[in-house]
Amino acid sequence: MPAAALALVGLVWARSGNRAVSSLFAAGTPLATVFAGAGVAAGLEGGSIAIGMAAASLVAAVVAHVALPRDQIVRRVWCSATAILVTVTTVIALAGPVPSEAVWLVLLLLAPAPLILAALFGDPIGGPSVVANGSWGSLVLGVGSMWAWFGDRGASDVEAYTLPLAIGLWVAAGLVLWRRPATDTTAAGRTTLLAAGAAVAVLPSLATAGDSELRTLVLVAIGAVLVIAGSFVPELVRGIPVRMLVVATGWVAATGAALLRGSTIATGGTSGLPIEFWPVLALAVGVVATVLWARDRAVPERAAEITLAVSVTLAAVPTALAIADGRNAGLRAAVLLGCLAVVHVVGTATRTRPFSGPALTWTSLAAAVVAGGFALVSGAVDPFDLVTVPIGAALVAAGAVHLHRSPGARSWPTLGPGLAVLLLPALLADWTDPVLWRLVALGVAAVAAVVTGAVLRLQAPLLLGGAVLFVHAIAQLWPWITLLYEAVWWWLWLGIAGALLIAIAATYERQVRLARGLGRTIASLR
């Protein structure tokens, strides 16, 4: 065959001592080799030209290590010509008249070629040559080969396409870790490779977890195993924060899959498991991750607190969606907001990390407020006290803890907001929605606030509770006051008012002293 003969002649002349002649034959020999491979494949029964071209391109890449001199220019010419032929063959395989069942084989034959060509100029992984970057083409072609193989067999699961790419990225990171020494405390490049592989392996599966209970269970199980396994791996390996990557990947897989599945069920999906099964599972994984992280004093230490706070917040999402959808809204609101209130108080009262600190306390409170507001706006929760009472009680309890710990703290910033949330909505309902049990409960709560403020010398509960009690009493006694007023001549009330004014005027100085003393007493309260 002329092409094969020309390729053999080219191999001989490529080693000539003349750089121009060697370069000329270095450019033509790979082309002749590919033509020879295409001719052989065309002569076979049922042969594919693209497969022949791919095999010949791989042969050209391998032969270069034996046939070429050490002249860098000659090697660059051969490498460029072969790279062009690899690209052309890839395009022919993907867009040309190649049977679909043969595309994966063409890409598989081409996959080693970029790595072999990069090896012409030294270490293809850790070498200083710019040509070494071309070795990434092997990863692209190898992953493409797997995708073509799965696609030809009708694979519909997303993992068939994401896992080969993730494994390829991890293998590339492993090779970089093996061949290139770490120069920084944290090697950003190889860390990014590993993180990208983890993201490719997990995130697409998460996106489809809502429709598959089996996929969700598998992701949660794998995530839980990674979270636990993370406590047994070192924090840094040659500049890579291995523990952070393992634990973060496991937490994202388990939490994301469970919460997405729970949210799908809460918004109308079908399942034999209750909605709360999934957020509780996600929260359990988050708690285990944070406890192990805090126990081992891993760095950064605040990662445990932030992870726990985010886990608690996200765990409330499916139940909040179920409340907005009207599925046992009252019971779910009471339980959800009650649990968030307990978390807020515990986070304020305890000093044990990671269960203390502002991250957990503020996010739990924010989650309660958002979920409660969402429930009220949707109109699914009735009575509204199921929302206001847990939040108000949590604010009062946390404020009391802060007041006890800080002798210089005042009662208005610590207890005022909680008392307002606890008392004022119920007071407004005196006119909009008077219900006997609420009227009685509001009176008892206001009296308790006044007594507590008087005994403990706290200004906020005394004044706010007293004001609420006074307005509440007027609102409830107003029908009797009106009846009494109408039962007596109007001029008699005028006479009584005049008598009161005369009495006040006669004792004006004494009344002023009493008012000033009362003001000083109230101002001295904490």
Strand and helix layout:
Layout: H1 2-13, H2 19-43, H3 49-67, H4 72-95, H5 100-110, H6 112-118, H7 136-152, H8 159-179, H9 188-207, H10 213-229, H11 242-266, H12 277-295, H13 302-315, H14 317-324, H15 329-349, H16 358-378, H17 385-405, H18 411-432, H19 436-456, H20 459-487, H21 490-506, H22 508-524
Helix pairs in contact: 1-2, 2-3, 2-4, 3-4, 3-5, 3-6, 4-5, 4-6, 5-7, 6-7, 7-8, 8-9, 9-11, 10-11, 10-12, 11-12, 11-14, 12-13, 13-16, 14-15, 14-16, 15-16, 15-17, 16-17, 17-18, 18-19, 18-20, 19-20
Keywords: Membrane, Transmembrane, Transmembrane helix
InterPro entries: SCO7613_C (IPR058062)
Transmembrane segments: 50-68, 77-96, 102-121, 130-149, 161-179, 191-210, 216-233, 245-265, 277-294, 306-323, 329-347, 359-381, 387-404, 411-429, 435-455, 462-481, 487-508
Notable characteristics:
about 525 residues; mainly alpha; 22 helices; about 80% helix; transmembrane helix; transmembrane
The DSSP helix count reads 22
Q: What's the end-to-end separation, in Å?
A: 103 Å
Rg calculated over all Cα atoms? 38 Å
Poorly predicted runs: none
Helix share, percent: over 70%
Biggest beta sheet summary: none
Q: Tell me, what's the shape?
A: elongated
List the secondary-structure elements in sequence, H or E.
HHHHHHHHHHHHHHHHHHHHHH
- The tally of beta strands, per DSSP, is 0
Helix/strand/pairing class, anyone?
Answer: mainly alpha
Average residue pLDDT: 81
Strand content: under 5%
Protein architecture, described:
- With 526 residues, this protein is mainly α.
- Helices cover 78% and strands 0% of the residues.
- It contains 22 helices and no strands.
- The protein has helices at residues 2-13, 19-43, 49-67, 72-95, 100-110, 112-118, 136-152, 159-179, 188-207, 213-229, 242-266, 277-295, 302-315, 317-324, 329-349, 358-378, 385-405, 411-432, 436-456, 459-487, 490-506, 508-524.
- Helix 16 (358-378) packs antiparallel against helix 17 (385-405).
- The radius of gyration is 38 Å and the shape is elongated.
- The termini are far apart.
- The mean pLDDT is 81.
- InterPro entries: SCO7613_C.
- It comes from Agromyces marinus.
